[in-house]
Design a protein that fits this description.
Elements (H helix, E strand, L loop, with lengths): L8 H8 L3 H9 L5 H16 L7 H28 L20 H26 L1 H16 L13 H22 L5 H5 L1 H17 L1 H6 L5 H34 L17 H12 L13 H26 L2
Length: 326
């Protein structure tokens, strides 16, 4: 059938459909990957500079790609279960391939499980080279990723999403990367990853804070929903400022009380981005009368950028310390 201008309707529809690459870019949300992969980069750098490990490039790449696959799989499974529960019914600018009708829930489920399986295979490869400590870290991470939106008591729907993200995208990522390079467990990558982990939770909370009404109506009990709007603002402020306080305390105790290993003074360069944290806190405070209509809507994305900058500075701090005291 032809339109008035002589064009074919089928041709127009075909032209409006996204490419395969665009469909899966939106479905997997690669913009979110730095939230998880930064911990792998940090943990690896920590192992080489502080743990004095010999850098194994192959194992680093396997750990990095494995984290990406697990994160992508988690994103897809999250979209599937949100859609099936009737929660995910709004099209966001950079996500929502299922709700857009670009891929079916069944296709997204299969792809999500495939990504999770791929990440698991890489994890088993690393285990074969490093040993069982990595296996237990990976097993815990995969289990948390699956149970985030699946099972009789999904973590996301029962106020445990923040803890899941804190562990998977921060603590376990850093500890796992450290163990991959050193071959042994340590409290150092756990303690030193706490500041970054808190900021990752800040990303999730900014999203959940914005979606309190829709999540509550859909039966989701996020931390934001439990706290309510006013307390969520206080919680967000804590999540953005406490990482800097943690850095100061770790540096202080390292040098004053003889905590070993010492956190290098170079970590104080993270304070360079604290003005950004205050700027984001201000956006949250003025959510009802924003300077820009997108300020509160895009608060999670802006928090992700802060997390990336903070993680880069933490990794740079390790590099600077290694160069100075090489």
């Amino acid at each position: 059938m032809k339109n008035i201008d002589g064009s074919d309707k089928k041709t127009i529809r075909a032209a409006s459909l996204p490419s395969t690459f665009e469909k899966w870019r939106v479905a997997t949300r690669p913009f979110s990957f730095p939230a998880s992969t930064m911990s792998v980069i940090f943990g690896t750098t920590l192992a080489v500079t502080i743990g004095k490990a010999s850098f194994n490039f192959v194992l680093f790449i396997a750990a990095f790609i494995g984290m990406v696959l697990l994160h992508a799989g988690s994103n897809l499974l999250n979209d599937v279960f949100d859609y099936k529960k009737g929660i995910d019914c709004r099209v966001n600018p950079v996500s929502g391939a299922v709700v857009r009708g670009w891929i079916t829930p069944a296709t997204a489920l299969r792809a999500g499980l495939l990504f999770m399986a791929g990440g698991t295979v890489l994890g088993l490869f690393i285990v074969s080279r490093v040993g069982m400590p990595v296996f237990w870290i990976g097993a815990i991470g995969v289990t948390i990723g699956i149970l985030y939106t699946w099972g009789p008591l999904p973590l996301k729907f029962n106020g445990m999403g923040d803890l899941a993200v804190f562990l998977n995208f921060g603590i376990l990522g850093s500890l796992g990367a450290w163990t991959v390079q050193t071959g042994f467990l340590s409290w150092t990558p756990v303690l030193w990853a706490v500041p970054m982990s808190l900021l990752v939770v800040g990303i999730l909370h900014a999203n959940n804070w914005r979606d309190i009404d829709s999540d509550s109506s859909g039966g989701i009990r996020t931390m934001a929903g439990i706290l309510g709007d006013t307390s969520s603002e206080t919680y967000y402020r804590f999540l953005l400022l406490s990482p800097f306080a943690c850095i100061l305390l770790l540096v202080l105790f390292s040098w004053a009380d003889g905590l070993r290993p010492r956190m290098p003074l170079s970590f104080l360069i993270t304070l360079l981005v604290i003005p950004i944290a205050f700027k984001l806190i201000k956006k949250g405070k003025h959510r009802f009368s924003p300077e820009n209509p997108q300020d509160f809507i895009a608060l999670d994305g802006d928090t992700a950028k802060l997390n990336l900058l903070f993680g880069i500075l933490c990794t740079l701090a390790l590099g600077l310390n290694a160069l100075i005291f090489a």
